[in-house]
Specification:
binds the ligand Nc1nc2c(c(=O)[nH]1)N[C@H]1C(S)=C(S)[C@@H](COP(=O)(O)O)O[C@H]1N2; 9% helix; binds molybdenum atom; mainly beta; Sulfite Oxidase, Chain A, domain 2; five-stranded mixed β-sheet; six-stranded mixed β-sheet; globular
């Protein structure tokens, strides 16, 4: 990342021009917690991750198996629909390309589900090609309970409500099924650059 000094440009920038989507502000070092319900506190012994629905065969990983999968470090900007953005957040986890590698499906939609009952829907193609991960560390530490530990989805090109905390699996669907916030009037897709906050945006 490159910085442009204040003296040089006459105004302060946190990063490259155009880095902040419309209507967003930079929270800096804060990391707000936004949860629709209580933290579920699932122990890793009781945790698994499944890919099911319209698939040739259900895939399931225990915590131990998940931890053996190829891992990648990820540094990304994240954008919450409540208007905060956070630059250069650092995570580590498993790419959805890895988790969906051998899955045969005609599905085009995914419903991610979580401990605690939260769900969110996405097009399957938005989870592929290095765009989405199941992460279990933040800033070099195990993911904190309130931020989705032991593991959460990370889909940084969409508003952060799509990054399901305490995620336990994906259901691949032929027909799009709205998730929790999508049912309550949030945009079905949620592109921060198009400011798709609410249905109709
Ligand atoms: N399971 C679950 N995942 C969730 C939520 C939730 O309430 N439950 N909230 C979403 C919303 S609206 C946002 S903005 C982000 C917040 O992530 P954070 O608490 O780590 O900042 O998590 C998303 N994932
Ligand atoms: Mo949010």
């Amino acid at each position: 990342m490159s910085f442009i000094t204040r003296g040089f440009t006459g105004r302060r920038r946190s990063g490259p021009p155009g880095r902040l989507p419309p209507g967003q502000h930079d929270v800096g070092s804060d990391f707000p917690v936004l949860s629709a319900g209580p933290v579920p506190y699932t122990k890793t012994d009781d945790w698994d991750f499944a890919v099911q629905g319209q698939v040739d065969e259900v895939r399931r990983w225990t915590w131990e198996e998940f931890r053996q999968l190829p891992r990648t470090p990820i540094t990304v900007d994240i954008h919450c629909v409540t208007s905060w953005s956070k630059f250069d957040t650092e995570w580590e986890g498993v790419s959805l390309d890895t988790l969906l590698e051998d899955v045969e499906t005609t599905a085009e939609y995914v419903l991610a589900y979580c401990d605690g009952g939260y769900t969110t829907n996405l097009p399957l193609e938005d989870l592929l090609d290095n765009q989405a991960w199941v992460v279990d560390t933040y800033d070099g530490e195990p993911l904190a309970d309130e931020h989705g530990g032991p593991a959460r989805l990370l889909v940084p090109h969409l508003y952060l409500w799509k990054s399901a905390k305490w995620v336990r699996g994906l259901v691949l669907n032929l027909v799009d099924e709205p998730g929790f916030w999508e049912t309550f009037g949030y945009h079905n897709y949620g592109d921060p650059w198009k400011e798709q906050r609410y249905a109709g945006d």
